[in-house]
Amino acid sequence: MPDYGHELAFGSFLTPAASDPARVVALARASEDAGLDLVTFQDHPYQPGFLDTWTLLTWVAAATQRVQVAGNVLNLPLRPPAVLAKAVATLDLLSGGRAALGIGAGAFWDAIAAMGAPRLTPGDAVTALGEAIDVIRGLWDADERGVLRAGGAFHAVSGAKRGPAPAHDVPIWVGAYKPRMLALVGRQADGWLPSLGYLDLADARAANARIDDAAHEAGRDPREIRRLLNLGSGRVQPTSAGFLQGPVEQWVDELLPLVLEHGFATFILGGDDERALAALGREVAPALREAVAAERGAAGTGTGPVRTAAALAARVPGVDYDAVPAGLRAVEPGDRAYATVRSTYVWPGAPALVLQPQTSEQVAQAVRYARTQGVPVAVRSGGHGIAGRATNDGGIVVDVGRLDAVEVLDRAARLVRVGAGAHWGDVAAALAPHGLAISSGDMGDVGVGGLATAGGQGLLGRWAGLTLDRVRAAEVVLADGSVVRTDADHDPDLLWAVRGAGSHVGVVTSLDIEASELGDVVLVVLTYDASDPARLIHGWAELVDAAPRELTSFLSLWPGRGATPPAGYAMTVWAGDDSDAAVAAIEPMLGLAPVLQQQAQQLPYAAVLPAPHARHSGAAEVGVRGGLVDRVTPDVAGVLADVLRGSLADMVQLRAVGGAVNDVPAQATAYAHRTQTFSLLATTTADRRPALDAQWSRLDADITGVYRSFDTHPDRLPLVYPPATLERLRAVVARVDPAGVFGSDLPLG
Question: Rounded CA gap, 675 and 150, in Å?
Fold first, then answer.
């Protein structure tokens, strides 16, 4: 029987004894401490001396950090599959992707029936298990449109709502011995989980063959199915006293044939012996891995994950998927996780590959690989950018979302190091205990890397400046794969470019930022009847421009729908806890238009920007028009009002960007717009884009700059980077990225 090439894994099979629950949990922790990969528990709900296995699994998952947890195996007749699907997905989400589903058709039917479940024949039990797996997988497939109708005579759902999806591809392992069950494993399961006490190894070859034949008939590669084995008890000791009762060398000699001849790759030890578990993890596992690696090397056995035929068919021609660096997480079409990473907040995407490095060196590996593939390369931090540059079609996305650490380097100097993949809401929460804050957009789910290198128009902007104004150093992976640090003393031209054009020069992996001393702020949210949008827009802008710098406000407006008038939403932050001064500055806003709703509160800045970590599904391709103006004149307000009245935009927004933003010299950063006081934005659908463009052109005389993140129009580059800035930027790009790996929309000539 062939070796299927699976990586070896080792686990414990613990008794859920109700007489000493603390010891059961302690054995689970000991399993993790010993380096085991998996902790499992038998499931006999009718056994009064046992804890409930599912409750125990959740408790153990909370008490551990790394190990995978599973029932071995869960009793399906007493655990309805629709509820079980949600329970497993929930545990997987809460544990960070550490759940596995071991499941069986049921065996002790007198006891099962005594608990109230219907008694099934062996044949019906197999059918019921197959139906249950279809139900469970269907409910996990939250990306599939429509409700779920699955199952059959024993387990049927009709119109069930799908979800939640687990955090990872939860494997389904089935305990099986008889021919029909083995065939079900081949058709539907991810793993075969027998116990050595019930399996004659002389029959294992035939059992594997039946699984493999069924897999082939179902269009599957048999290597997709992991072979796991419950070993019973064992002990590492100086002299031999029987199977798995002896020195480590004996264990290796006895387990090695199970890998090479019978394909087993996960070994689960029972017996509740902490010393045996420690020896398995610390002595037997490394020795067996070494022996298996040597045998596989000599035999040329392929190892690693196996992709399904459907997944292979979804690959994009021309991309060398097999050349992805080892250890670098890659998500491709056909993977269950692909739907969660293909798109951004707004833009739907269909990349050939999404790479998710965890370290700067892995980012470098990703860049070196991506530049050889001849396809577009996009870089993503939080994926919230509305300009659509964080995904693509048919290209490679380097997603730095896992580089999300937040570290206070020097509290006295207020210097903070932030990973480019962190979300600003998480940054705010991490800095709050230190009495620090960084101005950073208006939504906590926005990623650090994109916002801090493009500009960072935030709700503390008039008081603290742009986010990039506080950047003091950066770590950057350049197009050649080198990892460099830039600050005022090390390649200052690169730091200049990072602050305003970072996506053109490389992949920023971390930023050193000078934070501000800040505790509580005053937040005021006003919702207006915007039936007279021009008056509201102009009056709001005049008040904000004249207000103290502690006040920063964003005004968003939406067109009317039927009898519902246009609405305005002003989000205003006073940087500090002086509520009297805040009220005095904000109170005049109440007279700008009829106020439909108002809310005012003093709260930590972190509470203004929570990070829900919402899943991005790319609602639709959008048209985005932006512009920076020195003042919001009556004419500017009138054009924006016409856009609203004509329903040419889904949203019009104005952001205050004066005050401290304009203290910085224009030549200090690649963001060179230091005279304007307001940033304009309008979003629309593709079919309304031409009409919006026509109206927006009426602002040409007033718009003196463009914020790169807020305009997708191809001819706006001269307004994004003024001539002197563009010339200097091109010189930097020519040096660090002459092939244009990152700057495809910034021609060098």
Answer: 62
Domain 309-399 has CATH 3.30.43.10: yes
The CA distance from 426 to 195, in Å, is 45
Q: Which CATH code of 3.10.290.10, 3.40.50.150, 3.20.20.30, 3.40.190.10 fits the domain covering 9-299?
A: 3.20.20.30
Closest alpha carbon to 175 in 142, 198, 149: 198
Nearest to 136 by CA among 154, 157, 115, 106: 157
Which of 104-118, 139-153, 201-215, 552-566 shows the lowest mean pLDDT across its residues? 139-153
Question: In angstroms, what CA-CA distances link 653 with 12, 57, 85, 637, 724?
Answer: 57, 49, 43, 11, 29
pLDDT band at residue 110 under the 50/70/90 scheme: very high
User: Which pLDDT score is estimated for 76?
Assistant: 96
Contacts of 22 (CB under 8 A, 6+ apart): none
Task: For residue 509, give the 3-state DSSP assignment.
Answer: strand
Q: Is the pLDDT of residue 523 over 70?
A: yes
- Is the Cβ–Cβ distance between 518 and 550 less than 8 Å? no
Q: Do residues 392 and 371 lie in contact, with contact meaning Cβ atoms separated by under 8 Å?
A: no
Report d(CA 704, CA 120) in Å as an integer. Answer: 76
Domain ranges of the chain: 9-299, 309-399, 520-724
Tell me 399's DSSP state: E
In angstroms, the CA 171 to CA 195 distance is 18
Q: Is 544 helix (H, G, I), strand (E, B) or coil?
A: helix
- Enter the DSSP assignment of 325: P
Say what the pLDDT of residue 245 is.
96
Question: 723-736 and 492-505 are packed helices; what angle lies between their axes, rounded to 10 degrees?
Answer: 90
Q: Is the pLDDT of residue 630 over 80?
A: yes
- Give rounded-to-5 percent helix, strand, coil for the chain: 40, 25, 40
What is the C-alpha separation between 674 and 40, in angstroms, rounded?
Answer: 61
Q: Partners of 397 in the beta sheet?
A: 354, 378
pLDDT for the residue 745: 59
Q: How far apart are CA 271 and CA 269, in angstroms?
A: 7
Q: What is the CATH number of domain 520-724?
A: 3.40.462.20
Residues 45 and 247: their CA atoms lie apart, in Å, by 37
Instruction: State the pTM of this model.
Output: 0.82
The mean per-residue pLDDT over the stretch 561-590 comes to 95
The CA distances from residue 679 to 300, 654, 675, 707, in Å, are 61, 6, 11, 8
Task: Give the H or E element holding residue 331.
Answer: strand 329-331
Q: Which of 524, 609, 522 is nearest to 570 (CA)?
A: 524
